[in-house]
Design goal:
six-stranded mixed beta sheet; 15 strands; 46% helix; elongated
Length: 528
């Protein structure tokens, strides 16, 4: 698996390397065991298609319950920097493969522990439990060895390595590892015979009785001529013993009390052997692994990713060669993803996007929202370079189909929603609006759009406003971006959104498409 090279960020707060004295608590929160994660996605996940990204990211990882990490923005810029450092470490020097191997062993351990809880018979339970402990000890030892030689720059992984150094020499782990080894060795030396006569089963110690299966095989080897059909019957590998196997295991335990009595004591003593902080690491590292594996699926597409600079002071933001992550995931390597650039310089605050329908305007608006959410949870973002804003809240309002069960009209619903949004927004918020007044007349849409933009300007919000009203680009603090077409064929969209003066044709095109009198539709009619 090849993860695309992620370009570096600048401007984030530095993190002092005090990993030698700071204890490990979390890979997600610097110095804290946990945050207050959202259990449900933010309201803007639907409009921005981030829900689709989460669904892909965590498919097959449901046991880790990672979605709340993706739902919840980091509490401050220092936490964003903390997470970015961990991402950097994982993409270097094969460390990602090390963590993936560890995760695979921990999944195996949990599966064995579930098996121990699920089966009924005592000695099968203890067998599952012993195998789980062996897997755990092996995983910890391997991870410790791999991390010991790794070059780490992140405080999160450095403090965990220090915790792991102390854990493997602790009395608890050394005792677990040694007792596990002894119990496994003792069991491996248990040899017994089973004699079946009718319905009677006799179990006894093995005391040099001949192995007739070996003698039979040796006798008939002389008659073997090439490949032959195998008539042996394989026993099914059942998840649980049957009652006969269970009774045999109990008889074996009676024959070897010096082995099975210590095993009973071992299972009682180490009933809760997995270490809590190792469990925290095992879960939280998957936030990073899942995202990097997701990026690796786009490794052959030529798309770029970067660690963004995130600021909560300057509103001069930009991104180069960025794109809609959900769309790129959907298209895969089958189709080329169009990339776009944008920037805002003081006193600019609002990007007004206009142009022909189905020209990439809504995709651009989604991209803007995606970038800011991803940056604010500490993830790399689509693009070669980016500086993004550390928002307090992100609001989106995209055009939706009219709800026939809603007694209020679509325009009234749009106005209620935007009123609630603007009442809750602060100067640290981000707002993305997408054709919210398309159901009304040009005059009303222009009037309402202007009033809303004036309110956004008063709040000093960063915003994207997708509209067919070109005149709105004349307001202060706004910049015009337009979705472009192929000059030689105006019916063909490039899906590029660039800075440029609105040409006055966006609303005309919207009306023409609404009434079926575009060039393409008229040409089709004339051909009939």
């Amino acid at each position: 698996m090849s993860v695309p090279k992620i370009a570096e960020a600048t401007g984030l707060p530095s993190i002092d390397d005090d990993s030698a004295v700071k204890p490990f608590a979390s890979l997600m929160y610097d110095g804290h065991e946990s945050g207050h994660e959202l259990l449900q996605p933010p309201p803007y996940f639907g409009d921005s298609y981030l829900g689709q990204v989460v669904e892909t990211l965590y498919k097959g990882r449901e046991e880790y319950d990672l979605a709340p990490f993706f739902f919840t923005k980091a509490p401050d810029l220092a936490t964003i920097a903390y997470r970015q450092q961990i991402f950097r470490d994982l993409q270097e020097g094969g460390l990602l493969a090390t963590v993936q191997r560890f995760a695979g062993q921990m999944r195996k351990m949990r599966s064995l522990l579930r098996g121990a809880r699920a089966v009924r018979y005592k000695y099968q339970k203890e067998g599952f439990f012993l195998d789980a402990a062996k897997t755990y000890c092996g995983a910890i030892s391997a991870l410790h060895g791999d991390l010991a030689s790794a070059e780490l720059s992140s405080r999160g992984l450095s403090t965990f390595r220090r915790y792991l150094d102390n854990y493997v020499i602790s009395e608890d782990f050394r005792s677990l590892a040694e007792d596990t080894r002894r119990r496994a060795e003792d069991l491996s030396r248990v040899v017994y015979t089973v004699t079946i006569q009718g319905s009677r089963v006799t179990v006894s110690r093995y005391e040099g009785q001949p192995d007739y299966s070996a003698e039979i095989q040796q006798t008939f080897e002389r008659f073997e001529r090439g490949a032959t059909k195998d008539y042996r019957v394989d026993f099914r590998d059942l998840p649980e013993m049957n009652h006969v196997e269970a009774q045999i295991s109990e008889l074996v335990a009676r024959l070897f009390p010096e082995v099975f009595e210590p095993l009973d004591q071992y299972c009682d003593r180490y009933a809760d052997f997995p270490d809590n902080k190792i469990g925290v690491f095992d879960r939280e590292i998957q936030f990073y692994v899942a995202y990097l594996e997701f990026l690796a699926t786009m490794g052959s597409s030529g798309l770029s990713f970067c660690f963004p600079e995130v600021t909560d002071e300057s509103k001069e933001i930009f991104a180069s060669e960025t794109f809609d992550l959900a769309l790129a995931n959907k298209l895969g390597s089958q189709k080329k993803v169009v990339v776009n650039d944008f920037f805002l310089k003081d006193p600019e605050r609002i990007i007004i996007v206009s142009g022909p329908n189905q020209g990439g305007k809504t995709t651009f608006a989604r991209t803007f929202a995606q970038l800011h959410h991803l940056a604010n949870i500490g993830c790399p973002v689509p693009g070669k370079r980016a500086r993004l804003f550390g928002f307090d809240r992100l609001f989106t309002q995209f055009e939706k189909e009219e709800d026939l069960d809603n007694l209020a009209g679509k325009l009234e619903t749009d106005l209620q929603r935007i009123h609630e949004t603007l009442s809750a927004a602060t100067s640290k918020s981000i707002l993305v609006l997408n054709e919210v007044f398309s159901s009304t007349t040009l005059h009303d849409a222009r009037f309402l759009g202007q009033r809303i933009l004036e309110r956004i300007i008063d709040l000093d919000l960063l915003a994207v406003y997708v509209t067919f009203i070109d005149e709105l680009t004349t307001l202060p603090k706004t910049v015009s971006m337009i979705s472009t077409i192929v000059p030689e064929d105006p019916a063909v969209r490039t899906f590029k959104v660039v800075r440029g003066d609105a040409n006055g044709l966006a609303y005309a095109m919207a009306i023409a498409e609404k009434h079926g009198v575009t060039y393409k539709r008229l040409t089709e009619r004339f051909k009939r």
